[in-house]
Specification:
Structural class: alpha/beta
Signal peptide: 1-19
Keywords: Carboxypeptidase, Glycoprotein, Hydrolase, Protease, Signal
Distance between the termini: 48 Å
Organism: Sphingobacterium alimentarium
Number of strands: 16
Helix content: 25-40%
Strand content: 15-25%
Mean pLDDT: 94
Largest sheet: 10 strands, mixed
CATH class of the largest domain: Alpha Beta
Oligomer: single chain
Pfam families: Peptidase_S10 (PF00450)
Protein name: Carboxypeptidase C (Cathepsin A)
Number of helices: 14
Length: 490
């Protein structure tokens, strides 16, 4: 792979009060590369560096690190889509989708997503760079991004609405600097990143006058649309079925069927029987209660006794501990394909998140190697896989309704929801439920797509789903770019 390094330096400016390096407010390292994506061989340019956040007086108060990829053989970018990518946390860097999903380089893992050695980076033949340019953004204190002025109020950055406000301003500058105002624009966010991009869709529209073509929600949060009481307790059940199916804990007649044949049946049971049963509390008849318990057991791999003892309410923390307790294993929270080993088989909570430690095992060396050796971004600033963003102000989270408002005001705006069936943290059925509640009239339903995959929170870690999910993004972009001169109207 050929590279031309246009600018390279040790990218830190000074030390903070704790003696830690802080990055330059404004810097760029540019390099040239080649790849083959979606069967097309082409050259591309990578620009990685920092762009400031300014205060009201024009003083840089934070440096936001980003990596921006553009395909080289594009004469006119006015019709070339720009995909703006965020991860979650809210204190998580953009590393996950950057080097495991949509970007031109892929970390070294096996076909199911587990770490292998030697650690490293390889070509991603499934990247969407063939069809769109991509920028990966690290909010303050994630990746190499840092606050520059220690006297600055952290509330300017660390809260649902503050995060959306300053990132919208930052994106305006980025789009202007890179002459992308004419391009079709897309936001993609994963986990808490879905909260971020849902709020940004309206903030960009209302405060920056920037209109989008699409928002992609990967493993979405509740988006401020609360799921409490009986709804919270019932909506877990389709995920429980998926996890039990994967680990072969369902009855033989269910286990012999394909997962996507079973799930609609369980969804119907959840909405039509389980939710009403839980809502009735002690007023439910013994006959109805026992019938529901039998079905709950049948669809979850749990014993009837356990369900009965817990009054039809099985928290996810207990499920991750209980499903394979007899085998001495726990299952992962974010991806229940992963197994863990606790100090004691007894108890109601797992000792650690088996999936997250596995991911950090493979991603951390890969992203540090990639920036230093392939992008030639040299810095003494530590790459924060997870940075300190606490306390995070979570009040007034109306991001789901903001996304609906943005869609209502912009007929060009479409949404795609992607989820893994084995994700127990932001589970697939709640993702569907939230979209139903976000648009109760159904007037926007023809602009909302749902895509499910046989993996977990980061469904793209499994090779089969990496291929499928990137193709789904590619198809989504193609279908949401309107014909030339088509008017945005109802």
């Amino acid at each position: 792979m050929k590279r031309l390094i246009v600018f390279c330096a040790v990218l830190f400016l000074a030390l903070n009060a704790q003696g830690q390096p802080i990055p330059l407010a404004d810097s760029t390292v540019t390099s040239k590369h080649q790849t083959t994506a979606n069967g097309q061989k082409f050259a591309y340019t990578a620009r990685t560096g920092t762009q400031p956040v300014w205060d009201e007086k024009g003083k840089p108060i934070a440096a936001i690190h980003y990596t921006y990829y553009t395909r080289d053989d594009i004469a006119n970018r006015d019709r070339r889509p720009l995909v703006i990518s965020f991860n979650g946390g809210p204190g998580s860097a953009s590393v996950w989708m950057h080097i495991a999903y949509t970007g031109p380089r892929l970390l070294n893992i096996d076909d199911e997503g587990y770490p292998v050695q030697p650690y490293g980076i390889k070509e991603n033949p499934y990247s969407i760079l063939d069809i769109a340019d991509i920028v990966y953004v690290n909010p303050v204190n994630t990746g190499y991004s840092r606050i520059l002025d220690e006297k600055v109020d952290r509330k300017l950055f660390f809260g649902t609405n503050a995060d959306i406000k300053y990132l919208a301003e930052w994106l305006n500058t980025f789009v202007t600097r890179n002459n992308r105002w004419a391009s079709p624009k897309y936001l993609i966010g994963e986990s808490y990143g879905t909260t971020r991009v849902s709020g940004l869709a309206l903030e960009l529209q209302n405060a920056q006058w920037m209109y989008l073509n699409g928002v992609i929600l990967v493993s979405p949060t509740d988006l401020g649309l609360k799921r409490e009481g009986a709804v919270e307790k019932a909506n877990r059940w389709p995920y429980y079925t998926a996890a039990a199916w994967y680990h072969k804990r369902l009855p033989a007649d269910l286990q012999s069927r394909d997962l996507e044949q079973i799930l609609p049946e369980v969804e119907t049971f959840t909405m039509d029987e389980l939710l009403p049963a839980i809502s009735k509390g002690y007023s439910i008849s013994n006959t109805e209660k026992e019938d529901v318990i039998k079905k709950m057991s049948r669809y979850s791999g749990l014993s009837e006794q356990l369900i009965r003892q817990n009054n039809l309410d099985i928290p996810t923390s207990l499920y991750w501990k209980e499903l394979l307790r007899d085998q001495g294993y726990t299952i992962g929270r974010l991806d229940s394909r992963y197994l863990g080993i606790d100090l004691r088989d007894a108890g109601e909570r797992v000792d650690y998140n088996a999936e997250l430690t596995s991911w950090l095992h493979s991603f951390t060396p890969a992203i540090n190697y990639y920036y230093a050796n392939e992008l030639k971004y040299k810095t003494d600033v530590k790459y924060n896989m997870f940075g300190s963003v606490h306390p995070w102000e979570r009040s007034n989270d109306n991001t789901g309704l903001s996304l609906r408002q943005a869609m209502a005001a912009n007929p060009f705006l479409h949404v795609m929801v992607q989820y893994g069936y084995f994700d127990g943290a932001t589970d697939y059925f709640n993702a569907k439920y939230n979209m139903w509640q976000m648009d109760p009239s159904g007037k926007l339903a023809d602009r909302i797509d749902f895509k499910g995959y046989r993996s977990g929170h980061m469904m793209y870690l499994r090779k089969e789903d990496l291929i499928k999910s990137n193709n789904d993004v590619r198809d989504f972009i193609k279908k949401t770019i309107p014909a030339i001169d088509k008017a945005a109207k109802y």
